[in-house]
# Entry
Amino acid sequence: MIKINLLPYHEKQKKENVSRQLTIIVGLFAIFILALIWTYLHFSSQVASLETRVADSRQTLQMLNAKIGDLEKFKKQKALLELKLDVINNLEENRLLPVKTLDDLAMLVPPNEIWVVKIDQNGNNLKVEGVGRDNIAAANFMKTIENYASIKSIELISSKKVEIAGVTLQQFIFSCKMKKGF
# Structure
């Protein structure tokens, strides 16, 4: 006996083909949705990780800024201390200067001819008042002081005759500019 299929077999294949395509499309759509969910979760975890790192970095930055503030404070204190040390060193270097100057001037005074009455020092200016035997002794004393290494220039302020204990003497006042560092 012969069997005849009266049903259209092409339609059955078409229905199977459509159902297969529909299954493939639904499967691909499901895979696409899963891929989107995985991508979302992956990026959200990365964002959370980056936000944690940013928070940690901000906290570290605040700590470092505090340390920098402390460092700036220490730098200011160091500069202040160095300034104070410079003043102390300068004072230490110059503390013997007036004594040395007076000693050197005392060595330059000729005995029995000049008597120094007063010496004033104001910065680099030195004012010498005294009495000499005569005008020549006062002039020689000025020349001797002018040749002294620490004296830059000398200027006579006044010179006049005075009588002391019945003896006529020459009273003089002169001003000296001292060199820096002496």
Q: What stands out?
A: Helices lie at 9-94, 97-108, 135-146. The first helix runs from residue 9 to 94.
